[in-house]
Amino acid sequence: MAYISSNHTGPNAGSSPDGSCPFCEAPKRTDEEALIVHRGEHAYVLLNLFPYNSGHLLVCPYRHVPLYDEATPEETTEIAELTQTAMRVLREDSRCDGFNIGMNQGVIAGAGVAAHLHQHVVPRWAADANFFPIIGSTKALPVLLGDTWRSLHDAWPA
């Protein structure tokens, strides 16, 4: 409901109310406040505020760049490495059965924050679909973001 009521449509979709980029602002906050699970040299990992599933992570470069082909070799290497680590952490911590991993490039492709590159790492379980999405257009997420952050942050390798 938070996502729906925030009216995430139009040319500024995904930006903060003041027009700033949420992925540029997140690293300026504490890890717990911004739900940052891990900080790397060129990229970082945080929980999605509007998750498709419990444990839905985003891997973002610090640099404000919109498209994958505009990322530096160092950024793409670290995004790939952090994605692999995220998969291992989620598999160990959440016992997930699979993943959806991907990037929506540009508003037309479905990017919620099109101006800042980010990769989705969505854990999936064999029985993670139920009647809620079909009957009530609602997805049940039984774990609070703060609890998920603590669990994944603590499980991330040093």
From TrEMBL:
Pfam families: HIT. A motif (Histidine triad motif) lies at residues 116-120. It comes from the Bacteria. The active site is at 118 (tele-amp-histidine intermediate). InterPro entries: AP-4-A_phosphorylase (IPR052908), FHIT (IPR039383), HIT-like (IPR011146), HIT-like_sf (IPR036265). Keywords: Nucleotide-binding. Residues 22-131 form the HIT domain. The keyword Magnesium does not apply. PANTHER family: AP-4-A PHOSPHORYLASE (PTHR42997:SF1), HIT FAMILY HYDROLASE (PTHR42997). This is HIT domain-containing protein. The lineage of its organism: Bacteria, Bacillati, Actinomycetota, Actinomycetes, Micrococcales.
